[in-house]
TrEMBL record:
Membrane-spanning intervals of the chain: 6-24, 53-75, 97-116, 128-146, 169-189, 226-244, 256-274, 356-374, 386-406
Necessary cofactors: Mg(2+)
Topological category with respect to the lipid bilayer: Multi-pass membrane protein
Gene name of this polypeptide: Dmoj\GI18098
Annotated protein name in UniProt: UDP-N-acetylglucosamine--dolichyl-phosphate N-acetylglucosaminephosphotransferase
Similarity annotation: Belongs to the glycosyltransferase 4 family.
Species: Drosophila mojavensis (Fruit fly)
Pathway: Protein modification; protein glycosylation
Lineage start: Eukaryota, Metazoa, Ecdysozoa, Arthropoda, Hexapoda
Pfam short name (any one): Glycos_transf_4
Principal location: endoplasmic reticulum
Domain of life: Eukaryota
PANTHER family hit by this protein: UDP-N-ACETYLGLUCOSAMINE--DOLICHYL-PHOSPHATE N-ACETYLGLUCOSAMINEPHOSPHOTRANSFERASE (PTHR10571)
Function: UDP-N-acetylglucosamine--dolichyl-phosphate N-acetylglucosaminephosphotransferase that operates in the biosynthetic pathway of dolichol-linked oligosaccharides, the glycan precursors employed in protein asparagine (N)-glycosylation. The assembly of dolichol-linked oligosaccharides begins on the cytosolic side of the endoplasmic reticulum membrane and finishes in its lumen. The sequential addition of sugars to dolichol pyrophosphate produces dolichol-linked oligosaccharides containing fourteen sugars, including two GlcNAcs, nine mannoses and three glucoses.
Known catalytic reactions: a di-trans,poly-cis-dolichyl phosphate + UDP-N-acetyl-alpha-D-glucosamine = an N-acetyl-alpha-D-glucosaminyl-diphospho-di-trans,poly-cis-dolichol + UMP
Subcellular localization, as worded in the UniProt entry: Endoplasmic reticulum membrane
Amino acid sequence: MSTTAIAIIGSISVGAYLMTVRMIPRLREMFIKANLCGRDLCKKDKPQVPESYGVIIGCVFLISMFLFIPIPFAFDKDAATDAVTGGKPVTFPHDKFVELIAALLSICCMIFLGFADDVLDLRWRHKLLLPTIATLPLLMVYYVNYNSTTVMMPNFARGLFGTSVNIGIFYYIFMGSLAVFCTNAINILAGINGLEVGQSIIIAGSVLVFNLMELSLGHQVESHQFSLYFMIPFFATSLALWKFNRYPSQVFVGDTYCYFAGMSFAVVGILGHFSKTLLLFFLPQILNFLYSTPQLFHFVPCPRHRLPKYDAKTDLLHISTTEFRLNELGSLGRLMVKVLHTFRLISWQEQPDGRVVTNNFTLINFVLFIFGPVHERIATQMLMSFQLLCTLLALFIRYPLANYFYTLET
């Protein structure tokens, strides 16, 4: 591993952190004048807060990476020099260079599309389509450089399928779906101060720890080194943003940051060859998606905003609710809500006129349903603590537990 390149991206990231901390408060009035602002509905005075600040973080990240582009190749051992050629490279790692450029192109596309969503308020079908398009450069580079679509089988399945199975085009469908999921998963689990950035910082920190652990073991050195190049500046800029986005938020991040963060994780997961491990770090987001499925796919009525209700008298958050009549739901919708009600995963209040009132199906509302009304700061801390616990569980699954299911042949 080129420790010099890692040290340089670390230095650049420190500069990016300082630049971000300096820029955020200075651009406040500019965003408000451009009407890029909103009201913080979970505060007594409902202050006006500038939003879409993810575009600033994304730009600082891109500038940092643009400055870093020549560094890995200047210290790459494969780019050997020869005295006869006047010190010019004899071999240049074009495949690695293309990977880096394609990764930045995909992230840049998602920053642009995220900002367009903040300004134009795109429909959900567009939010699913646009990440798919932005992932195409990644998939093309993966096809040209690797085109490995073989999946290792766990021990219990090797008697039927063998050690590995080539799933062909379905592997590319999986990677495209991974990018769509990552970009939207953070956006779905959002709505209270500091949660979007907080969960992203923990996921980024988890990826960094995983990369360093794998490098210490000598596993796929180039892939995890590639991941570090992206995650270090992402972690630094996100940490700077969290300083202003945590409770009480001075700025809102908007969909721009959620898309930027999701695509950054998808990039390192796909090109770093640890997409399954990445999904383990997304356990809270996966649980939130599964819990939200009845409303996301409109099996149950879904209001446009499912944020918790704020009680100004107590300064606490309460569950937000949706209502419906069971006989008006489809058969699948009725089955879903009955299963959730049976296992006491949702609130349930039957009205005299036959309507049923339940909490909105989000992880935030689930926490409030289980623990009761809490302060916004406490709600964020509880969800971030859960994210951290899931990281520890993910690392346990990835290392001690995985050895029981996967045995490397010697």
